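Operator note (shift B, R.M.): manual run for Biotin--[acetyl-CoA-carboxylase] ligase requested after the automated queue skipped it. Running by hand, logging everything below so the morning shift can see what happened. Input copied straight from the record, untouched. If output looks odd, do not overwrite the archive copy; leave it for review.
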Amino acid sequence: MTDPHAPESRWSDLERPPLNERALRRGLIRPGGLWNSLDVVAATGSTNSDLAARARAGADGTPGAPEGTVLIAEEQTAGRGRLDRRWSAPARSGLFFSVLLRPGPGVPVHRYGWLPLLTGVAVATGLARAAGVDTALKWPNDLLVTVDGEERKAGGILAERAGDDAVVVGVGINVSLHAAELPVPAAGSLALANAVSLDRDTLLRGVLRSLERWYGEWREADGDPVVSRLQEAYAAGCATLGRTVRAVLPGDRELVGEAVAVDGDGRLVVATEDGARHPVGAGDIVHLRPVV
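Run finished. Output pasted below as returned.
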């Protein structure tokens, strides 16, 4: 008979087993590969904040964490999205992780802005293979799935500079959330999108391997989005292009028009009724015209 006063076991929710840290290390860390360190913690405020702290050199000259460091949390209590929005979900219901990248002197700093878009392409590609789910990208960094014929946000990406040469990229993906657990009606999950696999170990390996490949090709091309074919791949998977959108810009300004392109700097180009084209580098994008 179960003791109602016993502490909750990490295995009490059999639908959501913990990640297998040892197996993940065996499957992802290899000589010459990008990933060299991987840690799973039970809970933290924000993997991005924790990894950014690790990335910085110490006051005594101790070097910061190397490129390829991966930090994963079973639960985030103060996860952040764009515009400082909170991101929260039940423990072990998703993938919440951050990676440390140091593109090096070959990649100009102005091309670092492609990293969240690159991560979006990598995540979408990895999930298509590992979960059998078509994942679209909403500019600049939302992951969309289709639930009952409607687009739903199932994840997001947040990239932040950590010193002069490092970028921490955080990813959050709703995996097993049920409808009653969704934080907002417009949210979704891989489970609700009828994924063929909800095994988080499998999904994480697929996503990180995909990210390693895309990042390697982009860096070999010195961050050039055309040579690496990143710009082409992002445009092909971007659900924002061809839609009428409202861009809420800094300073409480708004712009309404058709999203017609993603330019060489990763900005969304919005064409307004007067024929003008406006590159949007920062802002909140709202899709106004549904896909038919």
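Quick read of the result: The longest helix spans residues 200-220. The mean pLDDT is 92.
Leaving this for review. - R.M.
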